[in-house]
Amino acid sequence: MASKRRGKLAYKILFWFLLISLGPMVFVGFQLVSISQQSLRKETLAMQESLTVGFADTVQKYVTTFRNVLTETSGLEDFVTMSPVKQQQYLNRILQIHLAVLEISVLNDKGVEALRVGRFLGPNPEMRDFSREDVFQTAVGVKGQYIGRLERFQGLYPTVTVSVPILDGRAGAARIVGVLAARISLNPLSTMLAMEFPATGKSQAAVVAPDGFLIAHSDPKEIYKPDARLSEDVLKVVTTQSSERGGGEMALPDGRRLLAAFAETRDLGWIVYVQQPIEAANQSAEEMRSQIVTVLVGVVLVTVLLSLWVAGHITQPIRMLKEAADRLGRGQFEDLPDVVTTNDEIGDLAQTFLGMSESLKEKTGELIHAKQELEKFTKFLEKRVDARTRELKAAQDELIKKERLAAIGQMASVVGHEIRNPLAVINNSIYFIKTKLATAGEPDPKIAKHIKIIESEIQQANGIINEILTYSRQRELKCERVQLNAWLEELLSVYPLAPHIQLEKILARVDVPVDIDTTEMQQAVRNLIGNAVEVMPAPKGGKLTVRTYMPEPGWAAIDVGDSGAGIPQDVLDKIFAPFFTTKARGTGLGLAVVRKVVDRHKGRVDVESRVGAGTTFKLILPAAV
Fold first, then answer.
1. Counting Cβ atoms within 10 Å, is residue 24 exposed (0-12), middle (13-18) or buried (19+)?
2. Within a 13 Å sphere around the CA of 452, how many CA atoms are in the beta-carbon half?
3. Measured at the alpha carbon of residue 567, what is the angle toward residues 565 and 570, in degrees to the nearest 5?
4. Backbone angles phi, psi at 491, to 5 degrees
5. pLDDT tens column, 363-400
6. How are beta strands 542-549 and 501-506 bridged, if at all?
7. CA separation for the pair 621, 515 (Å, rounded)
8. Is the N end or the C end of the chain the one with fewer CB atoms within 10 Å?
9. Strands (E), 127-174
10. Could you give all domains of the chain from N- to C-terminal order, each with its CATH number?
11. In terms of Cα–Cα distance, which of 573, 577, 559 is closest to 615?
12. Pairing assessment for the beta strands 214-217 and 480-483 based on DSSP bridges
């Protein structure tokens, strides 16, 4: 019974290999042939369209090049004032450099030739009158240039006439005093087409005017006919198109089918046309069809042989798989194969494997659940540890800050008491000396100068003691609600500003209410104004800008800006540190006090500075609800 079932499995493998692999492959193969034929046709047409567009641009550049040569020549400063002999030398040089130029003429402001040179002219050529022709009328008109008048030189070679105005700018505004016209050979265009589309190929290309005049052709025999024109059937199709470029299949009255593309040249109106017989475009597709059929036949033979080989050898791995399933049942969990339930040997193995996998599945589920619970608990612990670490660090920082402030406060109290008493005695002594000097008559200027120095130093020392005491003092905030603009106006009105400082106030339209300790906030703003004034010394001075606004809903801001030298980037990160200063004199507590005051009001301080442009401090405070 087992032997018969193994035979069924071999036949099944062979049958399904043939059905699954060969059926879709044959279908896909023929679909590929059809798709390839269409793709090759589209690719050929796209290539033709690309060639027409590219050559249309080449034609336009070819004609434009000679127009530019004429424009540059007519624009020479002394071309207008040249003698005919010198002008002829210039025109002869153009003939020598540009072989496609057959003839050049200089027309006066009446349209009559004043000078005419050419490759095939006699010594005294006849002067012609162009006053009523487009070559003159268009050049002196609004367009200012002319490209047209297609003719056949000596009845064979296609040419185009190009003309540009000659301007006289000596009197200021440019004035047209004549026209420079040239007759250009178009033979090089046929040469380029012949190189791109050789006679050995099946494609042909042409450049044609809308009236059918054949300008260039890939076959030189066609272009040199006395009355060379594009076929009326083709011309009718090309000239009736509404778009400037395109392509597709074209059926001619004589039964021929062509794959054709066209593109119109910019500014000229000429049409570049490329054609190829539809049979030539399909030839590659037919060759591909033959190759695909050959490949399919080979694949069929290989698939049959491979199917027979697999069918003959697949039963042995399945028996090994059954043995592996037995080992799994005994608790050996290595190299477990996939299980497929069928009515053959694979079915026997599947039954054995499924029976043993149930217990494994249950145990594995328990392990996975335990692992997930462990991961959740681990993440929970990590979050708790991180939170506690942040709290400890914040508490430690706050404790260090309080200890530092307490030490500074204790030191400031001692220093203030021990230094202010001598300073008061010195100040009283100075007052006594000044009184005595005043009663003795006109005092010595040097003595008066030194007395002022002593008074200034006493004031400086008192200011330092006040800054230290202000920074170290810890007291309860006494907040009151004020209108920010009104409060700032009052502060600025009593602040003494030197004449060399220009004050600019920019206050918000809406006077925002804020809850602040007016004493502390006044000290902070005065510190910023004082710093701004110090960086704009006399006599140059500068502009002090004070601005209020709402940076976002629920917040009010005060900007204090100066036009001083700015703060370097390496210093900007340290300016709020206590006792840090770049000044020759000072405690370095001014900005530290500012930050402390704003922090106590639940706000923040931002600073913007550019070296050489100035600095702006931004006090951002919560608006009153």
1. exposed
2. 6
3. 145
4. -65, -45
5. 766 777 778 888 888 888 888 888 888 878 876 766 66
6. parallel
7. 9
8. N
9. 146-153, 157-168
10. 189-281 (3.30.450.20), 400-472 (1.10.287), 480-622 (3.30.565.10)
11. 559
12. unpaired
Distance CA 268, CA 58 (A): 12
Distance CA 469, CA 146 (A): 90
* 175: β partners: 168
Residue 546 has a pLDDT of 93
Name the nearest CA neighbour of 503 among 563, 416, 554: 563
Beta-sheet strands, E only, within 405-500? 480-483
Q: What backbone phi and psi angles, to 5 degrees, belong to 294?
A: -65, -45
Residue linked to tokens 């210093």: 571
Q: Of residues 126 and 357, which shows the higher confidence score?
A: 126
Q: Is the peptide bond before 539 cis (omega within 30 degrees of 0)?
A: yes
Name beta bridge partners: 207.
216, 272
Q: Which residue has the tokens 């499995």?
A: 9
Q: 545 near 616, Cβ under 8 Å? A: yes
Residue 548 has pLDDT above 90, yes or no: yes
What are residue 275's DSSP bridge partners? 204, 260
Query: Comparing 412 with 53, which gets the higher pLDDT?
Result: 53
- Between 518-534 and 484-493, two packed helices, what is the crossing angle to 10 degrees? 50
Q: Distance between CA 109 and CA 166 in Å, rounded?
A: 9
C-alpha to C-alpha distance for 254 and 424, rounded to whole angstroms: 123
**DSSP H helical segments within 75-141, as ranges?**
84-97, 134-137
Q: Which residue has the tokens 């190929």?
A: 201
Q: What would the two tokens of residue 276 be?
A: 């190829």
3-state SS track over 178-209? EEEEEEEECHHHHHHHHHHCCCCCCCEEEEEC
Q: Tell me what the pLDDT averaged over the chain comes to.
A: 78
Dig out the tokens for 610 from the structure. 């550019």
Residue ranges of E strands in 19-122 = 101-108, 113-118
Amino acid symbol at 542:
G
Amino acid in the structure at residue 233 = D
Cβ contact 531:590 at 8 Å: yes
Residue 187 identity (one-letter amino acid): N
Q: In this structure, which amino acid lies at residue 302?
A: V
Report the largest interatomic distance among the alpha carbons of the chain, rounded to a whole angstrom: 144
Please, are residues 409 and 401 in contact by the beta-carbon 8 Å criterion? no
pLDDT digits (tens, 9 = 90+) for 32-89: 767 766 777 777 778 878 888 888 888 889 888 988 988 888 887 777 776 788 888 8
Write down the pTM of the prediction: 0.44
Measured between alpha carbons, how far is 464 from 411 in angstroms, rounded to an integer? 13
Q: Residue 404: what residue type?
A: R
Please tell me the predicted confidence (pLDDT) of residue 458: 75
Within 75-144, residue ranges assigned H as helices are 84-97, 134-137
